[in-house]
Amino acid sequence: MSAHSTSPEITFHPEHTGGTKKIWKTFWLLSVITIIELGIGLSIYTIHKGAHPNATLVLMFKGVVCILTLAKAYYIVSIFMHLGDEIRNMIMTIVVPLCLFIWFIIAFLWDGTSWLNLRNTDAGSREYKKTEQVQKQQPTEKGAKD
Amino acid sequence: MSTTAMPTNTKWWNGGRSPFNASYGKVMMWYFLMSDAFTFGAFLISYATLRFSLNDWVDPNHVFNSFPLAGSANLPLAFVSLMTFILIFSSVTMVLAVHEGHKMNRKGVEKYMILTIIGGLAFLSCQAWEWTHLLTHMHNVLVTGPQGMHIEQWNTTVSHNAFGLEADKASVLSSLSHSSPAALRDLIMEEDHSATLASLQNLSLSQLVDKVTPMINEGAVHVSTPGPISFGSYFFEITGFHGFHVFSGVIINIVMLAKTKLKHFELRGHYEMIEKAGLYWHFVDLVWVFVFLCFYLI
User: What is the average pLDDT value for chain B, to the nearest integer?
Assistant: First the structure.
């Protein structure tokens, strides 16, 4: 490593003087994942345009896109941000707090689903029915406010 | 890439050295980015909660289907892909700048910082175009007012969402005579490309209604109902907050470029500031990956 010590606190410097091959490999990987995502996005669009959209298939495609996005996030953080080159202590001090997101996402999506259920059953007082269908008979008040 | 062997049996927590093997500034940059990740995460999760609570949301392919200079061509996902690739590419040039910094190559750092700044500015220009398009482009919406139903022309703002479900034909037909001539002219021109504003200008409301009625019966002309209002607020809030991060990232990168040119880092003996600015810039790219997922793909 040609760079001088950045700080006396640093015990050793990871080797960075290698080629740029890894960076370009990551770039192509991210591009390919993005193109796959776009392909899936366009498939969802085509499915929606069809006469009978297959809800399960759309949901499955959306799940795949989410997983691909997490893969992209992993490569950006690990390679571009060099977190993968840091020592274990450093990785853990960043990754462990981020695990809070697991609770965060589950709790709030659960909340949204429960909210939808209350909306469609009038807080449990009637059969489950999409409110949109109810609104069509007595046209929306919302438009007037806008 | 730790080809330099890590010293074995290092007592990381015994003091005298950073337990993270990183300088104070770099560790604090990581903690800041972590807290920023929670801010963006909270925004996106609240958006998801709201979406989960509604029966219908907006079809992104319907909202984001235009491209500069492409007129009214239907090009879903095209423009946002361009924006995504611009940001990925500027991330690559940033990491190359950091790489040149490790090699103490000032000229290389300068070159890649300039490319990164250009990428950031290109992204911001794209976003400016997209916002302008949403705020100025009008859509026909079937609105229920005190006098019954009529067709209005709406742009996309924090209080107006023209991308609801499609209105049924009967409602649209009954609304025509209560609508403004301007809205009817727009409906006609949407289907009949030979019609011009000038040729329709002299027609009375009832003549316009006669002209547009068969188009609606054939299903050639579509009118939507108002969509969930929160769409605009969430879209402008989250992309605006992200765009502000890009903007501040560009400013930081410009400062870093100036400091590189003034040889500040060369005299200091290391380019760690470029590394820290790079962390911020990559984070901006990382957030965009999730914004792209939540607003445009699903």
Answer: 90
pTM: 0.89
In one-letter notation, the amino acid at residue B21 is N
pLDDT at B144 over 90: no
Distance CA B286, CA B37 (A): 9
Of A17, A90, A132, the CB nearest to B20: A90
Contacts of A18 in chain B (CB under 8 A): 1, 3
What domains appear along chain B, each with residue ranges and CATH number?
24-136+229-297 (1.20.120.80), 139-218 (no CATH)
pLDDT tens digits, one per residue of B234-266: 999 999 999 999 999 999 999 999 999 999 999
User: Domain boundaries in chain A?
Assistant: 1-98, 99-138
Axis crossing angle, helix B205-218 with helix B181-191, rounded to the nearest 10: 40
- H or E, element range at B151: strand B148-154
3-state secondary structure chain A: CCCCCCCCCCCCCCCCCCCCHHHHHHHHHHHHHHHHHHHHHHHHHHHHHCCCCCHHHHHHHHHHHHHHHHHHHHHHHHHHCCHHHCCHHHHHHHHHHHCHHHHHHHHHHHHHHHHHHHHHCCCCCCCCCCHHHHHHHCCCCHHHHC
Q: In the predicted model, what is the mean pLDDT of residues A92-114?
A: 96
Contacts of B22 in chain A (CB under 8 A): 10, 86, 90
B144 forms bridges with which residues in the sheet? B149
Which of A:82-121 have CB within 8 Å of B? 82, 84-87, 89-90, 93-94, 97-98, 100-101, 104-105, 108-109, 111-113, 115-116, 119-120
By the 8 A CB rule, do A123 and A129 touch?
Answer: no
Interface test with A, best of B270, B288, B295 (most A CBs within 10 A): B270
Q: How far, rounded to the nearest angstrom, does the alpha carbon of residue A68 sit from its chain's CA centroid?
A: 8
User: How many Cβ pairs closer than 8 A exist between chain A and B?
Assistant: 223
